[in-house]
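Q: I have 246 residues here and want to know how they pack in 3D. Can you give me a structure?
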Amino acid sequence: MPGKRLDEEERQLIAQFLWDGLGYSEIGRRLQRPASTIQREVTRNGGHNSYRPGAAHRAASERAMRRMPAVDDLDVDEEAYSFDRSPGEVQEFHLRLVGVFRQTGLSLTAARILAEIFMTDKGSLSATELVLRLSVSPATVSRSTTYLQEIDLLHSERDGKRVRYYLGEDLWYRAWLSSAQRNSVWAHTGLEGAEIFGLGTPVGARLKDMGQFFAFVVVDMESTRQKWLDFFEKKKRARGEVTEDA
């Protein structure tokens, strides 16, 4: 099913499920589609309370005929569902991760941005993708990403006409500084998330790093911080991201 566009019957079912009060995750499960696909379909066609399947299907057909870039054509990450992951578990973990980020003092939008980027295998999202995923205005995304860059939790790079946002390399260390008393929560969240996504996947590996770091901190905060910096440097060298002369 991934890669195949929604058809008219699926759109009719989406409208019915929304009327029945189902969430995006449950609708995705019933249609065997990623929850993110359902959310983007509804968001770009009037929103939860104004979604009209007929109009949505006509709009999609017109976009296909004109071969104009549509939301489906954006570089939106959906491989989170290509490793036989449960959409329900992924969505539940996403909410928990947002909550953990908020415990460090971040606003809701800033926490959601970090969680969205963290839970993509490629580890980055454009401003347009963040607007679509969060269903907020471009100005809101701009304010939050600017703040996150100011505190070094995000950095940006230009990708053609777009700006892409990446997690700061010292995200965990700065989180440790701002919320040391919650290290055990971070450790538990990261390791459990790694099991959900799979240790052999990019997201799983990223979550494992997070969990391992905060597990070390619980035992001995200061000495563990240095151990992690050494460990992370070795990993970067093993990946070829740092040369011997650096």
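Q: Anything worth noting?
A: Residues 221-239 form the longest helix (19 residues). Strands lie at 124-126, 154-159, 162-167.
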